[in-house]
Amino acid sequence: MPAFVSSQDRDAAKKERLALEKLGAGATWLANEAARVAEALPRDPRSAETLHMAVRATRFGCKDAKTSAASKRAFQTLHRLYPGSSWAKSTPYYY
User: Fold this and answer.
1) Could you tell me which of 65, 4, 56 has the C-alpha nearest to residue 30?
2) How far, rounded to the nearest angstrom, does the alpha carbon of residue 57 sit from its chain's CA centroid?
3) What's the rounded Cα separation, in Å, for the pair 66 and 86?
4) What is the per-residue pLDDT across 9-43, written as a single tens digit (0 to 9) for each?
5) What's the pTM?
6) Alpha-carbon dihedral sign for residues 91, 87, 60, 28
7) Which residue in 84, 85, 78 sits closest to 94, CA to CA?
8) Alpha carbon 72 to chain centroid distance?
9) Long-range contacts of 37-41 (CB under 8 A, 24+ apart)
10) Phi-psi category of 24—alpha, beta or left, where left has phi over 0 and alpha has psi -120 to 50?
11) Is the dihedral of CA 65, 29, 40, 48 positive or negative?
């Protein structure tokens, strides 16, 4: 860190970084959250698109060891809850 950053700011940055690391890769988190929200709110018209975008994020975003399972969960939730949607049709596989 640059010398002008205070020790309080350094400590805060370290704490924030550790909290973010616990969440895992962004794409993994997004796919799991999209599936969780879609299952909780299956009638929300935004869920199908969110699941589609989450699956795509697992292809193009940062990955970790849990990304493939999260992608599969989002994919299966999309195809189970919204099988005839244009979003399901444009999501033929997971990553």
Assistant:
1) 56
2) 7
3) 27
4) 999 999 999 998 888 899 999 999 999 999 999 99
5) 0.82
6) negative
7) 78
8) 12
9) 38/77, 38/78, 38/81, 39/77, 39/81
10) left
11) negative
Q: Please name the amino acid found at residue 9.
A: D
The length of the chain is 95
DSSP string, 14-63: HHHHHHHHHH--HHHHHHHHHHHHHHH-TT-TTHHHHHHHHHHHHHHS--
Give the closest residue to 34 by CA, choosing from 58, 63, 65: 58
- Tell me the C-alpha distance between 25 and 66, whole Å: 8
The whole-angstrom separation of Cα 68 and Cα 52 is 14
